[in-house]
Specification:
- This protein has 340 residues and is mainly β.
- Helix content is 0%, strand content 53%.
- It is built from no helices and 28 strands.
- Strands 1-28-27-26 form a four-stranded antiparallel β-sheet, with no helix packed on it.
- Strand 12 and strand 13 form a beta hairpin.
- The chain is globular.
- 45% of the residues are buried.
- The mean pLDDT is 95.
Length: 340
């Protein structure tokens, strides 16, 4: 494949500061963007013109940069995390977005927020080295969010969190160069594994849609692919109890020459990454494992230098079948791309 197969669709403008993150709703009809201007903008197609426009701006709840934004699986809620140390849950069940809960507890900047696959749990993380697990009661008459656990296994700033697509396992990564896995226990949540291998800050982790693989990206300019080995696996990988053991099976290097800030899998097997080199890279997973070993095989689809005017901070694949990707940048814009 060649770079010609990555098509720029449009550029979305309107934020007054850098855009840190973007996230598609579950149907792929709406895109949320989070910015240093302390707002979230909601973008969608204008039916009459088929152009992408800003339909709404959420503001007034956060006093500083909004670093992360995430949709609930049902698409009725939106969660945001801010440098003001709080996270907010926005409810649109009455038609308009309204902040129905402000989650307080982090000592300083909240860096990321993520919904579990059931939508009943929310995780946040921050500069205070902690990961918080929140339980959601989304009853129409008595919406409530309560903290049920605080995990403090990281030694430095926690940059990001991600939930397993079909298990109640949350993964975190951060400034201590590690990836940590957490799950519920009969008495409390616990950290059951620590993955090491990156030599600098781990900025993001992303699960493959099957949940059997995970990608991580780092300031060391590499992407690592991790595979889960269940108890009793034929490869003979040692496990503990009922927990799968995650092992690094592949390191992808040479595609970026500065820190990689975000990484995301598409439903059709594309792996996109972006970072401080202002480069957007798209790889295609062509084989999950080889006959002789566990190494997956990737093919380069596109490496687009100067994808934005400044650093790329975040990206997210549209969940639909058209291979549309959104990217967010320090230049204050969001761009939409299509792999053809």
């Amino acid at each position: 494949m060649t770079d010609q197969e990555l098509k720029h669709i449009t550029t979305l403008t309107g934020h007054d500061s850098r855009v840190w993150a973007c996230a598609w709703n579950p149907t792929g009809s709406m895109l949320a963007s989070a910015s240093g201007d302390a707002t979230v903008k909601l973008w969608g197609r204008e039916p009459r013109t088929d152009k992408w426009v800003c339909h709404d701006t959420l503001s007034g709840q956060h006093s500083r940069t909004i670093r992360s934004v995430c949709w609930s699986p049902c698409g009725m809620f939106l969660a945001t995390a801010s440098f003001d140390g709080t996270a907010c849950v926005w409810d649109r069940r009455d038609g308009e977005f309204e902040c129905t809960a402000t989650l307080e507890g982090h000592e300083n900047e909240a860096k990321c927020v993520s919904y579990s696959s059931t939508g009943q749990l929310l995780a946040t993380c921050g500069r205070d080295k902690s990961v918080w697990i929140w339980e959601i009661d989304d009853d129409m008459e008595n919406f409530d969010v309560q903290c049920i656990s605080v995990l403090k296994s990281h030694e430095q700033d926690v940059k990001a969190i991600a939930w397993h697509p079909n298990k109640e396992i949350v993964v975190s990564c951060g400034y201590d160069d590690t990836i940590r896995l957490h799950r519920d226990d009969p008495t409390d949540w616990l950290t059951f594994d620590t993955l090491k291998g990156h030599t600098s800050t781990v900025w993001k982790i992303a699960f493959h849609p099957t949940g059997e693989m995970m990608a991580s990206c780092s300031s060391d300019a590499t992407v690592k692919i991790w595979r889960a080995y269940a108890p009793g696996n034929p490869q003979g990988i040692k496990t503990s109890g009922n927990d799968s053991k995650w092992k690094c099976v592949c390191t992808l290097s040479g595609y970026h020459d500065r820190p990689i800030y975000d990484i995301a899998w598409s439903s059709s097997g594309y792996l996109a990454s972006c970072g401080g080199d202002n480069r957007l890279v798209i790889l295609k997973l062509v084989k999950e494992r080889q006959e002789q070993d566990e190494t997956p095989i990737f093919e380069l689809v596109s490496s687009r230098l100067h994808a934005h005017d400044e650093d790329l901070n975040g990206l997210h694949w549209n969940p639909g079948p058209d291979n549309i990707l959104a990217t967010a940048s320090d230049d204050g814009t969001i761009k939409l791309w299509k792999v053809e």
